[in-house]
Amino acid sequence: MMGPMPDRYTGVREGRLDMESGTWVKVAPGVFHRRYQPLDIGIVVIVGGAGLLLVDTRSTPKEGAELLLDVGAAFDKPIRWVVNTHAHFDHVFGNQVFGPGSPVNARIYGHRDIVRHWRDYEGPRLAAWRRDPTWEPDKAWGDVILTAPTDLIDDALDVDLGSRTVHLVALPPGHTDTDVVVHIQDAGVWVVGDVVEESGPPMFGSGCFPALWPRQLDHLLGLLGDGDIVLPGHGRPVDKSFVATQRREVAALARAHIAAGPPL
Ligand SMILES: [Zn+2]
Question: What structural domains and CATH numbers belong to the chain?
Answer without folding.
Answer: 25-260 (3.60.15.30)
